[in-house]
Amino acid sequence: MQYPIVWADPRANVQALEMRLRDIQGKADIAVVPEMFSTGFCTDRMDLAEPWGGETCQALQRMADTYDIAIMGSLIIREEDGLRNRGFLFAPHTAPRYIDKRHLYKHGGEAMLFKPGDQREVWEYKGAKIRLAVCYDLRFPVWLRQDPADMYDILVCVACWPKVRVQYWDAMLPARAAENQALVVGVNMVGTDGTGEVYNGHSAAYNTWLQDVALFNEGEEGTRIVDLSVETVRHYRSASPLWQDADDFEVL
What we know:
5-stranded mixed beta sheet, globular, single chain, Nitrilase/N-carbamoyl-D-aminoacid amidohydrolase
């Protein structure tokens, strides 16, 4: 779901998401929304942070249950020791799962506001194994590298990635797909945020052959439903097990 985010207005953004979910009810398994979907990329508004399980989380769980669809994105969460840019998976009638953004964008003020996460989790939903990354995490291939003991089928990256640097987004999404022998979905916002930063989208989904099957136009607001075959990517990894030749490493 590639669309503008209403700056610093969680309730308006939740309402906008619900309208979009109604439109695809019964047509998709997972809805992916941009980073900080409820506020925009606000790095100077601590008052926008909510507790995990707060009003926006409750709304996400209600929508997942009501429309029978899992929802992935991120939002600002307040913990006792500080704030998090928290990536989430809210699935129908299931306890929510989350990771906190690992790499914080210092140039944009994010590192001064949030604490980094350290979770390298793979979640299973409807038979698919999914890894979630949040925006700047996409630049760090070691962090997203497959673990042979717990391999993922789909890498999902949610972002507020501005137009001025979108060429790197365009390059790194298929690179992560190639090096991890995985399907990749990247969802960005469009429009202009409250600081004047412009976003032109370029959301994409890459299949096993590195074909972009999302086909968003420049700056387009809308939803694309994409069929990705977990069976095909697993067969590809089995027939051509390049991951077995990867260098061993440890993330500290």
